[in-house]
Each structure stands twice: as C-alpha cells, then as structure tokens.
Write a structure and sequence with these properties.
Elements (H helix, E strand, L loop, with lengths): L12 H5 L5 H20 L20 H11 L36
C-alpha cells in the first residue's frame, strides 16, 4: 500500500530535479503524463488502447501528483528530440519527386 504523505510537497523538488535536466523539462514532462493519465481514466469503459495506466501506487487521485511520483520512481523519463540535422529512424529520403507532389488531373467521364 502507498505511504502516507508527511508534507505538502511529496515528492521533494530536489529528488525530482535529479531525474531531469531542468525545471522546464520537469513541468513539461509531468503535464504531458498527467494528460495521458486523465485520458486513461476517461476511456476506461472503451478499452485500454494505447494509453498506459499509472505506473505507481499512489494515495493521491490527482493526475499531476501521480505523474510526479512516476518521475521520482524512474518510471517516466524525458527523451531529447533529435537535432534538426540528424535523421530520425523512420525518415526515408528520396532523390526524385514523390507521387503526392505530382499534380492530380481529374479523369474525364
């Protein structure tokens, strides 16, 4: 069972900042995860789909508090975006024109 909270700010800011590189990253990451948790609870009747349920047992029922506890536990991590010059894994470059770039001519009836 989850522990009883002893202060207003649990988890502590110091332990959260050890998991991320800046306060901005912490705010962005926790807000994104809180939205995912809210979507999970709103869609429980529809099936689980691709939304991941909360990864920690928590006394709190607030999505933001749960997301901060997940970050402290190391269940949620930030992943930096690739630089603009770097190619991502799914990107395929071609030399010629794409089919979608060619004009569409309507067929005559």
């Amino acid at each position: 069972m989850a522990e009883r909270r002893t202060s207003l700010m649990t988890p502590r800011m110091e332990s959260l900042l050890e998991r991320v590189d800046s306060k901005f990253t912490l705010v962005t990451l926790s807000a994104m995860r809180a939205r995912e948790s809210t979507d999970y609870y709103n869609r429980l009747g529809e099936g689980l789909g691709k939304i991941v349920p909360p990864q920690v047992n928590s006394v709190s029922r607030k999505p933001l508090s749960i997301s901060l506890e997940e970050i402290e536990a190391g269940k949620i991590e930030s992943v930096p975006l690739p630089e603009e010059g770097e190619e991502s894994e799914g990107t395929v470059e071609t030399d010629g024109p794409h089919e979608a770039d060619e004009p569409v001519v309507p067929a005559e009836a």
